[in-house]
Specification:
- The complex is a heterodimer of chains A (401) and B (85).
- Chain A is of the alpha/beta class and 401 residues long.
- Chain A folds into 2 domains: 250 residues, Rossmann fold, CATH 3.40.50; 141 residues, Rossmann fold, CATH 3.40.50.
- Chain A is built from 13 helices and 15 strands.
- With 85 residues, chain B is of the alpha+beta class.
- Chain B has a single domain, classed as Alpha-Beta Plaits.
- Chain B has 2 helices and 4 strands; from the N terminus they run βαββαβ.
- Chain B has a two-stranded antiparallel sheet with strand order 1-4. A two-stranded antiparallel sheet of chain B has the order 2-3.
- The chains are: A alpha/beta (401), B alpha+beta (85).
Amino acid sequence: MKSSERDAQWAVMEGSMAVARAVALCRPRVISAYPITPQTHIVEYLAQMVADGELTAEFLRVDSEFSAASVVYGASAAGVRAYTASSSQGLLLMTEVLYNMAGTRLPVVISAANRTLSAPISIQPDQQDTISLRDSGIIQLYVENSQEAHDTHIQSFRIAEDPEILLPVMVCMDGWLITHTYEPVRVASQEAVDAFLPPYRPVYSLDPACPLTYGSFTDDDKLMEFRYMVHQAQGRAKGKIEEAALAFEKFFGRTHGGLVDPYWAEDGEVLLLAMGTMVGTIKEAIDQLRKEGQRVGLIKIRSYRPFPDERIRELTRGAKAIAVLDNNISLGAYGALACDVALCLANQANKPVILPCIVGLGGREITIDSIHSIVKRAHQAAEGRRSPMEPFWVDLHPELL
Amino acid sequence: MKLTVGAICGPAGSKANRTGAWRTFRPILKSDFCTGCGLCATFCPDSCVFPEGEVFCIDYTYCKGCGICAEECPSEAIEMVVEEK
């Protein structure tokens, strides 16, 4: 496609608008949502588009996130493209339905505007909410900025609806840092999205003329096989996520990576693993450290589920230390990403030292200095001068304890 | 049998689940007491009671032994006995 035809507009806009525009371009037929900060603007923009006649869709305002998820579950079962969005407590209230959605193999796309969980109550961002949904069978993609949020939604419908996948996809973006930040965004053209994303052709759909049972009863003789089938679909999704990113690049001339997006990782002695908006800050810090001659690199995790274990093993082969930056914590253990990375490297020969780091909980700002302190510790751990066993709580204020 | 994606299946697919294995109490119909009123068949949540001639029969392949038929029977013609396997 000619570059002049790829994008309809290049303008400064709120991240929520970049997401809403992308969702509208994908022509969903049913949208349902319940407002919760910081997700609200996305669905407000979509509701406005429907009210103004710019988008032909049923927009259902409901009484809770549980209902919103149930509505899109039903819509998807009826065979149409469906979309919802939420944050924090709202995502937790959806949880029961989300497990069902994955188990019933309904390709709904969900935006998750990351916000920490109560208590104490806070509206600031961290990834605790979506990380707590990692085991549901839903595909989770984490994005770095508004442009990636826009583009990843378009890719997500294609991944979700692939007949070999048929799983919900959750696009996770840090609340405020993406949803309420104004950045220049290239909005795709309708023609290009229509060419990239074919109309949804459901394998099954509810029809009174041809009744079907959804979520039917399964006993101990088959349940494990159904779980295995979802796990296999997650495995196939690794290739489909890479393919969608490559096809998107071909259509639109830009990429944000596939399963991962390495930055100066090839010769990195110290590698940072991270996901979400902190990736931008880490890149800036790496630029500074590279100028000083330090061999520091980054592996941005774009797909958290499926987990890109093969790519991580390939990219960490030459590293001496890996700092894993978790914007969540499995209380009583480690950050979720650190646990996954540790297991993924456990059987490697000459594996690097792993430094688990807890960062930015409840919106604590992750600054360039935070990154420098992590890199310093990682060097010390690599040289055996510091035990990496205790997670490093970055920028913790011990004087308050 | 091949499993379907998402456990989505056609009508009457649940017949494959032989829920009679769940039973801890077995309903026994005493035909001498049965008046043929049919309340047992009306109330059975699994449609496991059905008429046969003058009386009623119970399909033990699917009956979970909930005891609603015995509870509803006005003639005390159904007795719940412990299932021994």
